[in-house]
Amino acid sequence: MTGEERQPGMRTLSTWTTRRWLRVGVAASLVVLALLGVTGAWVLARTAAISKDLVDVRSPTLTTAIRLEAAILNQETGIRGYGLTGTPAFIDPYRRGVAEQRENARRLEALLDGDTAGEKDLKDVQEAVARWQKRIARPVAAEPSGAPSQLAKDRATEGKESFDQVRTALDHQQERLRVERARVRDDLMANTTLRNWVFSAIGLVILLLTVLIFEGLRRGINRPLEQLGTEARTIAGGDFEHPITPTGPADLRHLSGEIDFMRRRLVRELAFSEEARLRLDAQAADLQRSNAELEQFAYVASHDLQEPLRKVSSFTQLLQRRYAGQLDSRADQYIDFAVDGANRMQTLINDLLDFSRVGRLHHAHQTVDLDTVLERTLSALSVSIEESEATITHDPLPTLVADPTQMGMLWQNLIGNAVKFRRPGVAPEIHVTAAEEGGLWRFTVTDNGIGIEAEYAEKVFVIFQRLHTKDTYSGSGIGLAMCKKIVEFHGGTIDVDPDYAKGARITFTLAPEPPENHGPSTLPEATRRTDAELAR
Length: 536
Known about the structure:
Blueprint: H1 3-14, H2 18-85, H3 91-111, H4 116-142, H5 150-154, H6 156-236, H7 250-323, H8 329-357, E1 366-369, H9 370-380, H10 382-388, E2 391-394, E3 399-402, H11 404-420, E4 429-437, E5 440-446, H12 479-489, E6 494-496, E7 505-510, H13 525-535
Helix pairs in contact: 2-3, 2-4, 2-6, 3-4, 4-6, 6-7, 7-8, 7-13, 9-11, 11-12
């Protein structure tokens, strides 16, 4: 066969997938094993049949034939002794021999069922014995005892010849049975040898199949997969330009091609990502510089606002003290408005500065006992707590790694709001709880005040968002926004429980340790100096 004739077949095999190779290999192995199993079963069945024939038929037949001969010889011995002496004791062996002869003859008939030659030999023996018994044994046994039998003497020669015929028939029968048993035994030995050879061949074929299967798996699957894994690790190590060579069955080659296609696409995506990263780095640098300039501008502007605001506040207060009662009532009212506006503007600027300091100045993370922080907060709010006759209780609070100043601001705003937004004529009742939940600590601050409507649950955390006028409840609208900023800076969340209807319930979570990305401020030194000056 030429190479051109072999090429189409080789191309056909090259399109076989791993599944098809496995199916063909398994099918071929099963066919071979089935043939071997059938052959082994046939050999075992034949060995069992021969062994059964030898054990259950041939050997018992020969043994029974020998017993039959012994029973006939006992008859002959008893009749000869009785005929020579007339002693009755010789009749008993004869009678026992007759009974044993009948029994052994019945057994032989059963064992030789279907054996024509064996049945003929048994018939010849029985006919010879019957002639001897008719002419010699029964007539002599019928003679009176006490004296030698004259009939035995008269028929001695005939009796000898008749029993010789019995002996000849017995010898012929036993010889043929011995030959048959020897033949069956030889068949058994030959079949046993064949069985051993067959099962040895089965073992060798199974071993050969195992070797072929493992070698096929190694060459067809393991080696291509190892090569694919090696090349994939090379690519994973950073050599993205390394190509993947398809090997093995069709599906593994297809898989290699898909992975190589993914590699080429990844190379293109990496090139695009690198270009995008460079652009983002440039934009981030510009944005960081812009934010730093904006923050510096805001802090400097706030600092610049402080001085004129102090002057306005000081001179309006001086005007109020010096000219109170000297001008008309409308002028006094205008002066009060100016003093109140200046004071509120001062409070608003200070609150704004506190809000902006969260995460910039206060980032001294350390172990903080929240029980101690809460007690200090309650002490700072003691005047408003006593005036409102508030009752404040709390569960045992944990110890966390946090900024102690921010924790104080958090408790002060939450407890202060709970005291401030109380129901008229009802003493505030405030309870603080803490429980560990999913690796975080969940806290609740519950009061019996006026509560927060569900539609405002998110709005209250936005800076400068007030739900009431300043005449009803004082404040700048920054407290809960500052709480949200502090909680998020410490890796948690804060919200209003909309299902609580007996007042307000604020829930928030804190991490045992602050997130790594909340580090110290990276603002320019000038901005931090300005903030420090404002703090003074």
